[in-house]
């Protein structure tokens, strides 16, 4: 069984994925956020997106309790931002890389796209959750090369891990 688990982990480390960051506010109004490689479009009409999150993650209590989140799509210029949002949860909003937006939500600066959405469903699956978000508003930023997560590194296409 352990060998199968290692093969599973290895397979998904080798599966390159786009990088997004999800932000929200917790019940006390503190900004929370994390990187997500599980972001997917669910429907264009109505505009629905999904992401997955471990229920043991530091951001889970806020996501479990909030009505709205911000989904940020990151480009190659946002590599350091991805590292910040994947780092120590106490440091993710230290600095001037974000501002307060609509509904008091934390918006990350200089991303390729950000979208505010209302959480409409949360599905618990074992120790994780699938979150469904209906997009309400957003903004498209400057174009950029993609940022990919592959073999535990943030890369732009063409870079070798």
Explained architecture:
There is one protein chain. The protein is an alpha+beta fold. The protein has 3 helices and 12 strands. The longest helix is centred in the N-terminal third of the chain and has 12 residues, at 2-13.
Give me some keywords for this one.
three-stranded antiparallel β-sheet; 161 residues; alpha+beta; seven-stranded antiparallel β-sheet
* DSSP, total strands: 12
The proportion of strand residues reads: 35-45%
Largest sheet: 7 strands, antiparallel
In DSSP terms (H or I, runs of 4 or more residues), the helix count works out at: 3
Distance between the termini: 28 Å
* Computed CA radius of gyration, to the nearest angstrom: 16 Å
User: Which structural category fits the helices and strands?
Assistant: alpha+beta
Helix content: 10-25%
Q: How are the strands of the biggest sheet laid out side by side?
A: 3-2-6-9-10-5-4
H/E series, N to C? HEEEEEHEHEEEEEE
